[in-house]
Amino acid sequence: ETGVTQTPRHLVMGMTNKKSLKCEQHLGHNAMYWYKQSAKKPLELMFVYNFKEQTENNSVPSRFSPECPNSSHLFLHLHTLQPEDSALYLCASSQRTLAHEQYFGPGTRLTVT
Amino acid sequence: TQLLEQSPQFLSIQEGENLTVYCNSSSVFSSLQWYRQEPGEGPVLLVTVVTGGEVKKLKRLTFQFGDARKDSSLHITAAQPGDTGLYLCAGDRIGSYQLTFGKGTKLSVIP
Q1: Is A51 on the interface with B (CB under 8 A)?
Q2: Distance of CA B41 to CAs A92, A100, A106, B96, Å?
Q3: Which residues of B touch A (CB under 8 A)?
Q4: C-alpha span between B69 and A78 (Å, rounded)
């Protein structure tokens, strides 16, 4: 595997479910990011991790909970989501010193019913 | 107010035509990036421009960074159906390590 991978690619969940999104990067990067992409809106940065430490949380509701066990893996734990949380969730990675050059995974298309 | 405004929002052209899309802001950026995103996939980095007035070419694609580092343009020569996709510009403002994205230009190249 090369680049940035994300699983699952598609997820349908009810508002009372708990699920997790997984991201893995094989680029030797030390910074990882979660973004939300909704129709007619620009990409919204949710969380940033540098060397496994969370450095940014852009006012994201607590029903989204990130976890970064090491520099290669990033998770987004989801619980009691709302229908408006339906979106494409993208993971990205970069070198911390080159944060402007980010490499994205294919995304997880999430539908909350 | 959008920090990075991209225009046009949608563009549909015939194969072989030339086109230019724009990314504008009132803020100064340390650098600007252009990404292309195809349906069902994540954005793919095309280029980074860092110097005011800089021009970079990638085959039929020409990227320019404005002299004041507030805007950028992407020109495609002789568009091909494979150029179809969502073109996103993104920038990191001076003093910030976060990327700000525009809403994108959705390009369709008709064979």
Answers
A1: no
A2: 12, 20, 4, 27
A3: 2, 4, 30-31, 33, 35, 40-45, 48, 88, 90-92, 97-104
A4: 39
Query: Which candidate from B33, B42, B104 shows the least CB-CB separation from A101?
Result: B33
Q: Which amino acid is at A78?
A: L
Residue B8 preceded by cis peptide, ω within 30? yes
CA distances from B28 to A13, B24, B46, B67, B82 (A): 41, 10, 21, 10, 32
- Contact check, Cβ <8 Å, B41/A92: no
Q: Strand A53-57 vs strand B10-14: parallel, antiparallel, or unpaired?
A: unpaired
**Each residue's pLDDT tens digit, B3-20:** 899 999 999 999 999 999
Q: What is the pLDDT of residues A8-50, one digit of tens each?
A: 999 999 988 899 999 999 999 999 999 999 988 899 999 999 8
